[in-house]
Design goal:
With 181 residues, the protein is an alpha+beta fold. It has two domains: 94 residues, Glutaredoxin; 39 residues. 48% of the residues lie in helices and 14% in strands. The protein is built from six helices and four strands. The termini are far apart.
Length: 181
Amino acid sequence: MTEPIAPIEQTTQSPAETETCNTHLPRITITYCTQCKWMLRAAYFAQELLSTFGTTLGEVSLRPATGGLFTVTIVPGPSTEETLLWDRKRDGGFPEVKQLKALVRNIVDPTRNLGHVDRALNKEKKDKEDVSTVEAKKATKPESGAEQQKQQVADATTAAAQTSESDANPPKSQEVCEDCQ
């Protein structure tokens, strides 16, 4: 017969002790609509934030809701005041992971370098500036009647192509809650 093994002593902290340990660290809450089935997206964002910021964060929580909600809030320290980082309705959709990481970094540790995420954000910013510079030049440069006509034909062709693409590939039907429509 084998000898019984003594139980392993475990040191556990009470919930109050755990709460006081992390009260000075930022807490992030991702609220998602269960009817729209956005739990996996919320979990993915939570995983990305935890893998990037590790022990710099005190908590990343998922809060189920209804009504098409998808928000990311942060409580930056010992205060109880939440700061809204992202709201799907306000910001027009879901954030890209790099955007969300940059928003969290700006509050948690503004001096932190996010490596490739920062490079990608800087490239996007530069590209947007380049586009706005080109558009500004177009606005100030008078076009001849022939050039304007060519541009109108090109714009119409592009619009027709986009319309035919959307007709060829109808969007997949998704089950959404009545508040999401």
